Amino acid sequence: ITSPAITGYTPDVATVSGTMGTADVTVNVTYSINSYEVTATANLNAAGSVTGAGTYDHFATASLTATPATGYYFVSWTENDNVVATSTTYSFGVTGDRTLVANFNLIDYSLTINYKYADGTQAAEPHTEPLNYNESYSVTSPQIAGYVADQTTVAGTMGTEAVTKTVTYYLVETSIVDASNCSGNGNGSIT
After folding, report:
1. Which of 72-76, 166-170, 175-179 has the lowest mean pLDDT?
2. DSSP states along 16-58
3. Which of 102, 112, 105, 125 has the alpha carbon at shortest distance from 154?
4. What backbone torsions phi and psi does residue 115 show, to the nearest 5 degrees?
5. Which region among 11-25, 108-122, 148-162 has the lowest average model confidence (pLDDT)?
């Protein structure tokens, strides 16, 4: 006789068998609740952390939490490449082994460099580019004839917010000497 199936439980004796004698026979079948492994990992090692993985009994509620690292944001929970949740916390009733992945992406921060003359008007087109957290940048300021930039290179490391810098261009001052009223002594001196 096959022990009846009970969802989420396993009998200690799957099949009761034997030869019937002349007396009544009572066989006790004990059922144990099934346990399952819930595995959860981040798609990128440094992108964030995941908590809540472990062994759960059938019908228990697993609650997974994904926490993005600095410079990353949470995208979704996937299982076998299928999206199962888009919230950082994913709770579900456990009915079998599960392998889930918390997906994170880098945040793009904007670097903007404005090029202005001393009077505030635009000297050149702004430089803009997306950068990730902790990414280095080094941008050479454009040369403008007759002007000198207060920063020939704008460099740094991207933090956790957009960066806007301004390079100011100043007019190069030149002096013109009228030598028509000067006299020389022949050895390079002008008076």
Report:
1. 175-179
2. ------SS-------EEE-EEEEEEEESSTTTEEEE--EEEET
3. 112
4. -110, 115
5. 11-25
The tokens describing 124, both together, are 């050149």
Distances, alpha carbon 149 to alpha carbons 23, 112, 141, in Å: 106, 16, 7
Nearest to 8 by CA among 94, 91, 109: 94
User: pLDDT value at position 186?
Assistant: 58
> What are the tens digits of pLDDT across the range 85-113?
999 999 999 999 999 999 999 999 999 99
Give Cα separations from 43 to 67, 99, 106, 133, 168 (angstroms).
Answer: 12, 12, 12, 18, 43
Q: Give the position of tokens 């945040």.
A: 107
Start-to-end Cα distance in the chain: 126
Token output for 127: 């430089």
In b/e form, how buried is each residue of 70-89, taking b as 16+ CB within 10 angstroms? ebbebbbbbeeeeeebeebe
User: Residues 35, 40, 43, CA angle at the centre, nearest 5°?
Assistant: 160
Phi-psi category of residue 179: left, alpha or beta, with phi > 0 → left and psi -120 to 50 → alpha: alpha
Q: Cα separation of 66 and 83, whole Å?
A: 14
- Residue 30's closest CA among 51, 53, 14, 52? 14
pLDDT digits (tens, 9 = 90+) for 56-79: 999 999 999 999 999 999 999 999
Nearest to 165 by CA among 178, 186, 151: 151
